[in-house]
């Protein structure tokens, strides 16, 4: 290979790279030209010629082949001519690479001269930060991408962390071991003034980085999160750089509309009777003793009766919006009523009327009682239903129904239309996703406001406040929809379109009705009765 210089008539200076008896290869500006003046060259030999100069980049093979075949003696652009030291900078300007387009033999000969040339290229392009000077101490490898500089990446800020008081799980623990209570349930979370209810660790700004050109790269600030609480019953204080929530009053922890608060909580250390009179309270009620015959306890929220002896022929125990837990069970003597807006949990029920908005859970037995709820669960590990009526909307689960004396027991499941429930669930899920998408859009807008809070004028602050209220309202609606989703999914877990599931035995003289299909049990049965396609099925 050799170099020669000549000019075209139009004045472009070309440098000849290669010549043989068939053609010349030349470079001008950034293009590589071929001029073929004789036919007969074998294209298979072209790769070896091109390989002599790694700076040649062949881009038009078709025109090259045409020029070789026609030998028209005309100049044709067949590719480009790469720089000896090619610099590449990543899009984020955090990394710089070089590639030396020479043969390894040429690289090895140049040594320090090549290093100086590389440093000059870096300087000309403003690369001055994070230089990898150690790579120049070793042999540079030709035609290989080499990292020569790395910037310092920014450290993004941490998102705010919000923690709340962890409410007790409202699910009874059923055990076969008779040495402990079968139904222990912490329904009400009692707190006192100044008790911890939550905290927020604020978002951090992060630490800026530096590009390979020495320019500061701002970090991404951590996202703020709003800690939501009822200011009437909860206060926010600054402690050790955190926002800490504390109860302003004694009471029961409650979460409502996504906010933590403390509701009124009436604790009666004795029994409800002549010394207290009937109880009608706006909030939560805990009775450490029992409820005497003829007396009632009515509350807007959860009611807990902790007396080991349970409850007898009281008048009424009614939670309008919450749940009822009776630790010792209830012997109603045909007069007592237990009603709950949500769930009822009792160890046993004898001659009592129980009605719940969601579910009734019985630990031991229900005798000559009326149970009415969407779902009824009489402990499948030995729980018994003897006599009375069991009325559910979609599912009844029990260990045993009836007894060997064939006491008449009525079991009724109203049933549901699975297609309608699925459609309702799908509609809610669509709406839920729309709300979450809408909330995300508003959240991004709020992020912009919050990143410039110090510069906001009165009008902008008002807009920010209104958007915050809108955002919280959407989240509250989403929470309510999510609760409904959980309820509908529970319905869809039911087999068929209404089910009675017996784990031990269903005795004769049990009258069963599921979705208007009736069956009088005539022999001992164990398994699942359910309705599907307008027919009653049995699977043991």
Q: What's the overall geometry?
A: elongated
Tally of helical segments: 6
Number of strands: 41
What percent of the residues sit in helical stretches (DSSP H or I)? 10-25%
Cα radius of gyration in angstroms: 41 Å
Instruction: Give the averaged pLDDT, no decimals.
Output: 88
User: What distance separates the N and C termini?
Assistant: 90 Å
Q: What multimeric state do the chains show?
A: single chain
User: Unreliable stretches, pLDDT < 50, 5 or more residues?
Assistant: 1-11, 178-182
Which structural class fits the helix and strand makeup? alpha/beta
Sketch the major β-sheet.
21 strands, mixed
Which band does the percent of strand residues land in? 35-45%
Note down, in words, how this protein is organized.
- This protein has 540 residues and is of the alpha/beta class.
- Among the domains are: 4-81; 85-150, no CATH class; 161-261, no CATH class; 418-492.
- 19% of the residues lie in helices and 38% in strands.
- The protein has a 21-stranded mixed sheet that branches. The chain has a six-stranded antiparallel sheet with strand order 1-2-3-4-6-5. A four-stranded antiparallel sheet has the order 11-13-18-17, with no helix packed on it.
- Residues 1-11 and 178-182 have low confidence and may be disordered.
Describe the structure concisely.
This protein has 540 residues and is an alpha/beta fold.
What distinguishing features does this structure have?
540 residues, disordered N terminus, 6 helices, alpha/beta
């Amino acid at each position: 290979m050799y170099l020669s210089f000549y000019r075209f008539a139009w004045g472009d200076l070309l440098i000849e790279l290669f010549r043989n008896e068939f053609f010349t290869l030349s470079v001008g500006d950034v293009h590589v030209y071929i001029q073929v003046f004789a036919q007969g060259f074998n294209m298979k030999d072209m790769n070896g010629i091109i390989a002599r100069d790694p700076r040649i980049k062949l881009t038009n093979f078709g025109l090259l082949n045409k020029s070789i075949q026609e030998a028209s003696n005309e100049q044709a652009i067949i590719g480009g001519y790469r720089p000896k030291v090619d610099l590449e900078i990543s899009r984020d300007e955090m990394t710089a690479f070089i590639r030396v387009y020479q043969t390894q033999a040429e690289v090895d000969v140049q040594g320090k001269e090549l290093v100086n040339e590389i440093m000059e290229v870096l300087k000309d392009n403003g690369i001055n930060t994070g230089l990898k000077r150690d790579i120049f101490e070793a042999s540079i490898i030709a035609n290989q991408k080499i990292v020569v500089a790395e910037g310092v990446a920014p450290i993004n800020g941490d998102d705010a962390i919000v923690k709340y008081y962890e409410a007790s799980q409202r699910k009874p623990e059923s055990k076969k071991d008779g040495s402990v209570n079968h139904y222990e349930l912490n329904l009400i979370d009692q707190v006192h003034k100044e008790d911890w209810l939550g905290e927020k660790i604020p978002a951090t700004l992060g630490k800026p980085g530096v590009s390979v050109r020495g320019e500061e790269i701002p970090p991404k600030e951590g996202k703020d999160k709003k800690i939501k609480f009822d200011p009437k019953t909860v206060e926010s204080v600054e402690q050790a750089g955190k926002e800490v929530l504390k109860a302003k009053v004694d009471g029961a922890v409650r979460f409502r509309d996504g906010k933590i608060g403390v509701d009124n909580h009436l604790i009666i250390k004795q029994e409800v009777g002549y010394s207290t009179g009937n109880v009608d309270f706006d909030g939560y009620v805990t009775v450490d003793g029992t409820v005497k015959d003829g007396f009632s306890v009515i509350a807007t929220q959860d009611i807990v009766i902790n007396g080991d002896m349970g409850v007898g022929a009281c008048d009424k125990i009614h939670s309008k919006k919450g749940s009822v837990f009776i630790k010792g069970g209830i012997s109603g003597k045909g007069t007592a009523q237990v009603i709950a807006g949500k769930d009822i949990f009792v160890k046993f029920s004898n001659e009592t009327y129980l009605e719940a908005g969601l579910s009734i859970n019985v630990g031991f037995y229900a005798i000559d009682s009326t149970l009415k709820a969407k779902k009824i669960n009489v402990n499948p590990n030995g729980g018994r239903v003897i006599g009375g009526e069991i009325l559910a909307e979609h599912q009844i689960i029990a260990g045993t129904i009836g007894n060997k004396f064939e006491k008449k027991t009525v079991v009724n499941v109203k049933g549901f239309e699975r297609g309608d429930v699925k459609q309702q669930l799908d509609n809610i899920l669509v709406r839920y996703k729309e709300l979450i998408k809408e909330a995300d859009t508003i959240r991004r807008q709020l992020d912009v406001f919050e990143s410039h809070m110090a510069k906001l004028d009165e009008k902008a602050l008002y807009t920010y406040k209104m958007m915050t209220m809108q955002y919280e309202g959407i989240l509250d609606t989403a929470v309510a929809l999510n609760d409904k989703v959980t309820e509908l999914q529970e319905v869809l877990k039911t087999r068929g379109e209404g089910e009675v599931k017996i784990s031990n035995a269903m005795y004769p003289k049990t009258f069963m009705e599921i979705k208007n299909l009736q069956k009088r049990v005539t022999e001992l049965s164990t398994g699942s009765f359910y309705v599907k396609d307008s027919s009653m099925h049995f699977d043991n």
